Amino acid sequence: MTQRINTMRASLRKGLEDLGSKRSWKHITDQIGMFCYTGLTSEQVDRLREEYHVYCTSDGRISIAGITISNVSYLASAIHEVTKD
Asked: CB within 8 A of 13, min separation 6: which ones?
């Protein structure tokens, strides 16, 4: 389980970086455990939910355990879109 969580963290970070995000996503791989604070604002979280049907807590915490190889690209793209300046 730990290896899968770490792989999903690395895949999410890589996906965001590959999309050209100007933000640092190092904190995603620096954290441990099944949850991750993304640093998203409540407004960005609202957009994730309303536009992309991605659900997380209002403070931007996501469940890494819920990320799979088949949805990590979608999640990275959605986060990238709501964090663009």
From this structure: 25, 26, 28, 29
State residue 1's pLDDT score: 80
Instruction: State how far the Cα of 57 lies from the Cα of 63, in Å rounded to an integer.
Output: 9
Write down the residue that tokens 């904190």 correspond to: 27
Name the amino acid, one letter, at 49: R
Q: Each residue of 6-44: b (16+ CB within 10 Å) or e?
A: eebbebbbebbeeeebeeebeebeeeeeeebebebeeeb
pTM: 0.95
Amino acid in position 10: A
Q: What is the pLDDT of residues 37-73, one digit of tens each?
A: 999 999 999 999 999 999 999 999 999 999 999 999 9
